[in-house]
Structures are given as C-alpha cells and as structure tokens.
Amino acid sequence: MRARLLRIADHLRESYWFLPSIMAVGAMLLAAGLVWLDSHHATTWMDRMPWLQAARPDGARSLLSSIGGSMIGVAGTTFSVTIAAVVYASGQYGPRLLSNFMSDRGNQVTLGTFIATFLYSLIVVRTIRSPGEIAGETAFVPQLAVLVGVLLVLCSIAVLIFFIHHVPSRIHINSVIERIGDRLIAEIDNRFPVFVGQPLDERADDPRIPAAFRPDADVAAIERLAAVRAKDTGYIQLIDEAALIDTARDHGLILRLQYQPGDFTHRGSVLVEAWPAEDLDDDAAKALRAAFAIGSRRTALQDLRFPIDELVEIAARALSPGVNDPFTANSCLDWLGAALSDLARRDLPSRLRADDDGALRVIAHPMTFAGFIDRAFGALAQYASADMITGNRCLAALGDVALSCDAPDRVAVLARQATAFRELAEDALSGANRRAVLARADQLLHALAEPDYKRRLRDRNAWLGGTA
C-alpha cells in the first residue's frame, strides 16, 4: 500500500493539473471568505482614505469582468506556449524528458495563478448588487474582495513576466542537463550508503544463504521455493523496502528479488522467490506483491539508472548525424563524470540484507561500480568514439572519475572501459582525429597502470580538463 501511495504522490507531483486545481480551490475559498467578511463588517473605512476610494457597483462589476476575461485568455495562451515548449523539448532531447517539463513548478504555478484569478473574479462579481436590483435589498459591493482582486491582477502580471523568462530558460539544453545531473547526484547522496535492511558481508559460501538460492542448488532444495507473481504489466517504479523486510520477518521468510526499480515486468512473471515455501501464505504473498508499484513508464523514484539513461539519450541524440552537436554531448559527459566521481567515493551495498535482529531476509540485485560505469560510459562509447571532440571529453571524464577512486578494482574497471573505448575509436576514426584520441587514451591507460595514478592524472590537467 505504501508503494502505491508513494507512486500516486509522485504522479501528482508530475501532473500539470494538481497544483493549479489546488490554487483554484483556494481562490474560490478566498473569494467566499472575503465576501462574507464584507457583508458582515462594513467597509466604510475605505472612505476615510482619500487615496483608496470605494468602488461603486457598476465600476466594480466592470473591473472584475475585465479581470476575469483577460485572465482566462492569458491562461489559454500560457498553456499553448507550454505545450509548444514541451513538444519542442521532447522532440529535441527525447520523449522521456516530457515528465521533467510537466512537473516544472514554474509552469504549474503560472497556470494556477491565472485560473485562480479568473475564478476569484467570477465569484466576487456574482455578489455585486446595484440599487434596486433586488427588491427590498440595498446595493452591495464587496470592497475588500474587489481590492484583493486588483492585487491578484498585479501578482498575475508579475507571474506573466516570470513565465516569459522561465520558459526559454528551462528548455535551454544546459539547463535541462543541469537539472538531470543535479537529480542524479542528489539520488546518489540519498541512496548510498542508505539501503534496505542492514548490510551483511557477502560470501559465496555464506551459511545464512539457503541452499535453494545458491548456484549449485539441487532439485530438492529448489522445490522449497515459492514464487510471488506479478498481476500487472509495466515498469517497476517503486519497491517498498521496509514492507519486504517486515513481511519476511513476520513470516520467517528469506526473499530473493528478481527485479529492481526500472525493470519491465509482465503479468505472471516472478517478482520474488520466497524460502521456505510452506511459510508463504496468501496474506504474505499479497503483502509482498503490494510492495511493488508498477506503472506504464520509468521514474526516478528509486531507479538510479533512469537519470543516467536520460543523460545518455541526450548525448546520443546530439551525436547523431542529423544533429551533430558534440558540445551538448560534452555537457552530458561532464555531469556523468561528476556523478560517478561522487559514486566512486561511496561504498555500495551488499545484495544481502538483514532485519534489525541481524537475520538474513532479502537477497537483492547487486549494485556494482562496473555496472554504473558501463551504463553511462559504456552506453555512450559507440557514439563518442566516432567523434574526436566528444572522444577526448569522454576520456577526460574517465580520468576525473579515476581521481576519486581509491579501490584498485574500481581503477581496473575504468582501465577496461578506456581500453574498450580505444578499440572503438581505432575503428571509427581516421587520420589526425584518430591519432589524437588514441594518444589521449594511451596517456590515460598508462597513468592508470601506475601506483601513483592520481598524481599522474593531476599532472595532465591540461588534457584532462582543457577541452571545454
């Protein structure tokens, strides 16, 4: 249940209607409250202020009618501009970036402000009465409500000026890349070293791992496994980690996850394997199934690979023959290098997770430094290796990540990635471009092969960071 609530909250955050709806309801409540205040407390105090004259029925009605008509027109215009910007951005940078623009708070507040001002004016103008308009009742003008309506117009003008500046700045490619990169770095900071359960030292022969979950499991051991199957088809957007641990502890189970956030699953596929099978009852299976939130698209809620893929997609599109924009790809590589440099300084969690009592409860998908490197630089290598400018920047980004690595196995991962990149560049480039990229690749590989590789990389700052 918690997973579904978190998914709903994320959908509301990314929706283009939720915040404007809240603002519209707030405007209607504000209008009703101010009209009530005007009707129960005379506003003759305005007559004592020569610079603030009380409005008359005809003037107030005309003013609010003009405000309402203009606001709904401006709201339609801003919506059209937003849709045009979204269409342009999704076509240029990739359709998966559409949610980034739909969830933009500036666009939501702009639309909400104009709609709220329109509804406010509509409600207030309905309460204005001219003399003799209704038999037995005197004229009524909600002076305070009219004054607040004028203030809302001033706020709407300020928001319109903000919107005119906001839209082109938000669709600027560097701003798009910056938002994705910032979110990626923030997710790395939030997720590591925080993860589901308590970490356990992972060993292949760990006696706490049931025989059914080992590579050499026999038929008898496998028969003690029970499968929890999906009832929906789509992408796993969220896994309620606490619910998995609690359910496994309450029923004496050990779980092995078959998927991780961002993976695609279909009806009937196995989400979780549970051991022992006899302890998995219907209630436990229902609770485990409810811990997975499945939707039609990937999100960045728990999927650290998603912002990486977004940066890779932008860079790959920029390097396509139809666009041929290596500098946009360079910006993506800069942010990927910054994020993975941060990741290189952190300990990644073991796939073995325990409850508060130290008992093994969940066997999750392993998170490896090599996997993230391959997801970022490995996916871009086929494109970047065919361009001299981007190829040099890709090697520089690998060198920047190496400066943050202290573990020899992670340095070896970067060396293998640089070697693979060199082989691709050797086949894809020719002439002077080929010689330039291969020379830098050789410099990087030579530095990584030495014990004092950090000093050697720092001494080569001219080639590491001089391609901007």
From TrEMBL:
Name listed for the protein in its UniProt record: DUF2254 domain-containing protein
Transmembrane segments: 16-37, 67-88, 109-128, 140-164
Key word Repressor present: no
Keyword Transmembrane: yes
Pfam families xref list: DUF2254
Taxonomy, superkingdom: Bacteria
InterPro entries listed in its UniProt record: DUF2254_membrane (IPR018723)
Keywords of this entry: Membrane, Transmembrane, Transmembrane helix
